[in-house]
């Protein structure tokens, strides 16, 4: 088991800054996810922790010990790659056993015992003699997982392990990975660009953008109270609005905000004062036809029927608005409203 | 902010040492010899290559080069350009005047080449002009023969198509001297062609020792190359592009002209350029099929070496290499501007044996011609090797195994030639395979200066075998003085070095593409599982490129056994002659043993080729 600390890690390549003063603290046994759009620096962060990249500045520490200069093969990390990276000239069992050429199997098990144990763990018992090319994508990814776990690493790194798989399989494998992680109680860092996957699998997650960490928190915190506009728009659907404070009740912190000559009431604007511009967001599911406050009229443009809910896109004045309702509305305009404490104020 | 230094690692040192060893070998086996040739061409006699740096003012002279450039023998009518550049060559003025006098100048009269100027009634090319001329003719003929071949290979489906397609790569490993033997067996006075003509009571033909047979032999070599690259490009033309053009109103013919042809042009130019450079630097074929009467620069350089005119040989070598490098460079500039696309939907092939049609008749014609040109010489060589005055005989092969104790020392002993060839082949492998492998590994690792290493390591591709042979002869066999000691290398060692220099780029070419296309994450996965970088190389990368290494080995062996150009220079003095050298010495007097040896070379070539074709995917891709 290990905890991992990144302190002000920056990575600059010739022209670009891949990481900009990234600081993270990943706890023992935690399932931690790095999520963000491509090019945000999440994979570079993972590769820096693994030891494939050397930070330009800052330190990476395992259990408070600086690992600068420790080569990958001595860092005691298991890595699962996006395209599996199974050795094509070895069987499944040889792949899984590869690390045991360099390290003893944990618990004094023999090589064969360890391979059997791991293949059972990933539900591939009896597949040891196959060639990797004979397996499906999902099976190959499980072999890669078993291989990375064989030497009993104290840290498991997963780099977009499921992005090559189809959606249904991804959900199954996601649950399997989570189960194995909990069973082994291993510190796991998971990289994905899929925000839904990040929300569903993680204990905590870090949202990254342009080489910086935008927000760290539990899935709930990040979803419900995004810190920045980027997080608000990247994680889930959202309606981001901007207005000016025209009135403020110091006792409650409630404020009146004018958006396009329309007065809205928000709860708790912090220390912002009259005349300040504020950006805030309201989740689609927080908008309702029955809410009594902050009502406005939306012109319906398109509706997507999703089964358990319907996502409706429309306009309020010039603003795009998205809302979730039970079914497709039968009118061209609908009245919507939201409660003052359903809005979250964002950092500019 | 200071950082802990990355831990010093043995494998970095190992990589550096390996790099230095390869660099050292290249310097000794290639760069120093080539520098010797440069020194011969540019330095006053008595100065060594080091004088270029130490005492350039006194040492450097352009006399040799200028002597060649300004000589009518080498440059024909163009020599006056170098002799006195300000004056318009007198010949040109006279020639222009004659053309103007003619009422209707023909196209030939108007040829705008200053080089080809009428001189007392004929065109005076000079040696360089003639070499360019025969290379141009060879290129034109190779393209004329190669394009229909490409059409058949790309557009028709028939049993054996894939085999024929891979056979088009054979010229890469086929010894040029073997082609020459085949051509003599086919087209010689007593060759199969004339035997056939006599049997039909037709007049015989004699095209041996003529420009025609040289050009034909070059086409034998290079037309398959043109066909190969053109067919490869043809197969990548997306059929949907043609379909789009048709749907927009183009006829079949117009669609070909507007859509297919523009995409074939770069490939045709590639084939033509390679043909030109190969024919320009062709040596064994010109020497054996043309003789001194049709000498090209390479042959004349060899002749100069034999006459011990080393400075002149060096001067020719420098000019020749400059010219071929310039052509290649110009082409690479052109090629870098081309973009290639991979066809998701290659055009469907027509079944060849289905019903009669005009284009299928054309295919039959092409096939007949191909059989005569390509199969003829090989079969003639085989037949000649097993026929004697009394019909079938194995006498020629028995002759190869004779110890021939009674032979004079200056005579070629056939068994010695066979064993020498095999020994040098093995020696070449021992050098070329590790070198090629190391260079492939170094050139696919990402580090600064990689491109420079790539270029320096691949340079031997661009220098002809005769120049390498000359450099090794002058630089190493004649000896070099270092710190008061004189180092000399024996002829056989120099031959092995020359073969290794000529063949390791093929090992690199077979290994590097596979190595480069290996998923980087395979190595990263191995390292995360506890393997060091070097261990990952052994466990993961080398097993996965084994097929490339095997193909490279086959290439290196075939090239070594068939190598003639540098061997014939280094084997002077009756020591270290190989089968190709023996063939050249036999060819004028005893065709039988020459064809028998040619058949031995054929077997080596064929076996190597099968290995390359079966396992060498890097080559197929490249």
Account of the protein in words:
The complex is a heterodimer of chains A (348) and B (622). Chain A has 348 residues and is α+β, with helices and mostly antiparallel strands. Chain A is built from 8 helices and 19 strands. A 6-stranded mixed beta sheet of chain A has the order 6-7-8-3-9-10, with helices on both faces. In chain A, strands 13-12-11-14-19 form a 5-stranded antiparallel beta sheet. In chain A, strands 2-1-4-5 form a 4-stranded antiparallel beta sheet, with helices on one face. In chain A, strand 11 (239-248) and strand 12 form a beta hairpin. In chain A, helix 3 packs across helix 4 (137-149). With 622 residues, chain B is mostly helical. Chain B contains 30 helices and 8 strands. Chain B has a two-stranded antiparallel ribbon. In chain B, helix 8 (126-155) crosses helix 12 and helix 24 packs across helix 25. The longest helix of chain B is centred in the first third of the chain and has 33 residues, at 10-42. The relative contact order of chain B is 0.11. Residues 1-8, 103-123 and 618-622 of chain B have low confidence and may be disordered. Chain A binds chain B through residues 50, 52, 54, 57, 66, 68-73, 75, 77-79, 81-83, 85, 87-89, 98-99, 101-103, 144, 147-148, 150-151, 157, and chain B through 1, 3-7, 9, 519, 521-522, 524-532, 535, 539-540, 543-544.
Q: Secondary-structure element sequence of chain A? A: EEEHEEEHHHEHEHEEHHEEEEEEEEE
Binned, the helix content of chain A reads: 10-25%
Strand arrangement within the widest β-sheet of chain B reads 1-2
Radius of gyration of chain B: 27 Å
User: Count the strands of chain A?
Assistant: 19
Q: How much of the sequence of chain B is in beta strands?
A: under 5%
Give the DSSP E fraction of chain A (strand runs of 2 or more residues): 25-35%
Average of pLDDT of chain A: 90
Mean pLDDT of chain B: 79
Number of strands of chain B: 8
Provide the low-confidence segments of chain B as ranges: 1-8, 103-123, 618-622
Tell me the strand order in the biggest sheet of chain A: 6-7-8-3-9-10
Given as residue ranges, the uncertain stretches of chain A (5+ residues, pLDDT < 50) are: none
Main sheet of chain B?
A: 2 strands, antiparallel
Per the principal axes of the C-alpha atoms, what is the gross shape of chain A? elongated
What is the SS-derived class of chain A?
A: alpha+beta
Q: Helix content range of the residues of chain B, please?
A: 55-70%
Oligomer: heterodimer
Radius of gyration of chain A: 24 Å
